[in-house]
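User: Can you predict the 3D structure for this chain?
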Amino acid sequence: SPGGPEDVRVHAVARLMLAGFIDHIQVSWVKLGSRLSQLILESGADDFGGTLMNESISRSAGATHGEWMKPEEFVRLIRELHRTPARRATDYTVLERY
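Assistant: Here is the predicted structure, written as structure tokens:
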């Protein structure tokens, strides 16, 4: 089930095993919540994801963490990890740093 230590391990191992093949690993805050997502960012993921509009798949599967978060909240959560938040394009080109 989502939300346990196995989520952290999967992301950390993925970062190690996929290095050189996949450059970015995104954490799903919608499925895991903001605190566990922060922990996963510290364990290998480098993308906090984004706001989903009319998200229904995760909700139908039992996710309870929501589909929308204020941009300021993303910035706060990322800065708490002493990282620089940035808005990016789909190809990971940085469009704006916060």
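Residues 5-18 form the longest helix (14 residues). The two ends are 34 Å apart (CA to CA).
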